[in-house]
Design brief:
Length: 273
Amino acid sequence: MLETPRLREALEKLSRFISSGKEPSKKHSTLDSLFTGTPQKAFQNVEVDVAYLVAPSVHRVPLYFDLPHEVLQGTMCIVTPPPQRKYKDVVLRLSEGGWKDVFQRVKKVIDTKKLDMKFSDPVAVRALAKSFDHFVVVDAKTYPKQLTGEFIGHQRVPIWVSQRGGFAQSVRKAARTVVVPRRGHNCVSCLVGHTGLSLDELQENVEQFLNKLTSHPQGATPDSILHVRVAGKDCSGRRATLTIFCHQFEIPQGISEERDGEDGPKRKKAKKG
């Protein structure tokens, strides 16, 4: 397990920075104000940047880890098996639990059949990706092709969950899930929480994430990680990163002694013309 003794201090400073400034104002239509009981407060995301010395094996399916506290905040689009009306009724009923409930933030429910029919060209896919903060795929037998390629260039990797335990439990589980892409990059950014959580909850999320990443058989070993940073953007879009772990390189003593004993570069004698 990675040792991060300065994690608490880094989270305190990061939260202070990304919470500073004027909160972004979201424009709502008249219908939104009529049917939204309590105004939703916008929180800033907290991420963990992991840089690898040796990246994990490339795989088209990312790693999904469950965390103890909520990760996703903002609007959500849920992709379900057909028919979508069955799931829409469930979301509408569960959204009456209050603004803190995750179903209050679900703004669209669409099944895989309608998704394939309505979003076939790249322009429509790009518009879909920019319309919601997060996408969750629930109990789909095959992953929707619309949520790949062009979509990933404008949106985070969607969360793919099964429907074990029921639809409501699956969506609530997705809200506590962190996604680790495995596309061969030497550095990945993973969303682990937001400023709506307390410092204790953020710290627990980060510790659990690093523990699961380094203990998973297809994850990363501590020796293969270059550094780990907590990161986030403030209300003005400025991004800050604070290092909480750094790989220690050991230089053999023989190499340093040989370099100390070496003379400077010898100059060539000028040829007499």
